Amino acid sequence: MTMYGSGYSALSMSSVSRSAGYRRGTSVHGGAGGSNVRVSYASNGLGSGFDLASALGGGGGGGGDGSSFSISGSEKHTMQNLNDRLATYLEKVRMLEGANTTLERQIREWYDRQTPTVNDYSKYEAIIEDLRKKISVATQDNARLMLQIDNARLAAEDFRIKFENELAVRMSVEADIAGLRRVLDELTMSRSDLEMQVEGLKEELVYLKKNHEEEIAAMRSQVNSSSVNVEVDAKPQVDISATINEIRAQYESITEKNRREMEEWYKVKFDELNSQVASSTETLQVSRTEINDLKRTLQSLQIELQSQQSLKSALEGQLAETESNYNMKLSHLQIRVNTLEEELKNVRADIERQAYDYKVLFDIKTRLEMEIAEYRRLLDGEERILIEEIVDGKVVSRTEDVNTEVIE
């Protein structure tokens, strides 16, 4: 019978030496490395004594020191008792094997239950990819809108410069028109003065004509009243009327000439100014229309840019929230995986420990079955020695035939 404790094993076999009134029993105990070996001899006979080192009292193959005891009485009764105890021990071994099988099944079931299910995140990956594509498209649209805004800003700047230039031209034309109007006013005043002078000359001419007629009438009356013929050798009198008419004609021709020249010059200048004002007004109107269109375009682009920026901010926030949620889920899953790996490590350690215990129990069972077989051979009348030694940590068994020593 074998004992396991603290890395040592002990084997005790009862043997009976055939004699007339006295039988000697010996046993075999083996230690590590094959030292301290004791051999037990066995033979058939009626009265017998047994020296056993057994671990049957503890109900298992744990660790403990073996104890020797001696049983007197009938050899058959003793062997039957020993076989019963061995059968009980084997029953305990079978019970432990069943418990080990049940425990292994429970471990497998627990492992199957605790195996983390792999979640399918493909739909979320598709959503994330779609959001990334939307962000990319929004970024491209934003860049395109920024380019359009820059182009519109440059065009507006060009139109502003053109407007300022046209405004300067318009102001210059208006200044020229104001100057021409002043000249026209001066010419009008000069014309009025000339007309007043003409009227004055006309009145003076009428007055002179009236005086001349009165003088002629007076002279005629004097001539008619006197009969004296006086011949005067004098120069003929100047015809005042002809002179006045000539002067009047000269002034009228000069005035008419000046009037025609002034009207023609004024008409030419007025036409030029009108054409310039019309052209400037048309250009100014076109520029104002283009500026208004550009302002509306710029305003619509700014509104669209703000909406795109809002959409971009919302998408970036949604993406950040999604990534945060996924990172949190991944961290939880990683913690769960680490916990399960630790539990799996503990389960594997328990399985290895139980496998080691099972191996130890199986070795004990094997040796007990060998001892039972040996006891059966003893009961059948065989006489041999069973020696078990532990050599380099391994159990080595051998049997040898022995001679029976009879002591008188």
From TrEMBL:
Q: Which UniProt keywords are given for this protein, alphabetically ordered?
A: Coiled coil, Intermediate filament, Keratin
What residue ranges carry the coiled-coil annotation? Answer: 79-148, 177-385
Q: Name one GO cellular component term.
A: intermediate filament
Domain IF rod spans what residues? Answer: 75-386
Q: What is this protein called?
A: IF rod domain-containing protein
* The species this protein was found in: Gasterosteus aculeatus aculeatus
Give the SUPFAM superfamilies listed for this entry.
Intermediate filament protein, coiled coil region (SSF64593), Myosin rod fragments (SSF90257)
Superkingdom of origin: Eukaryota
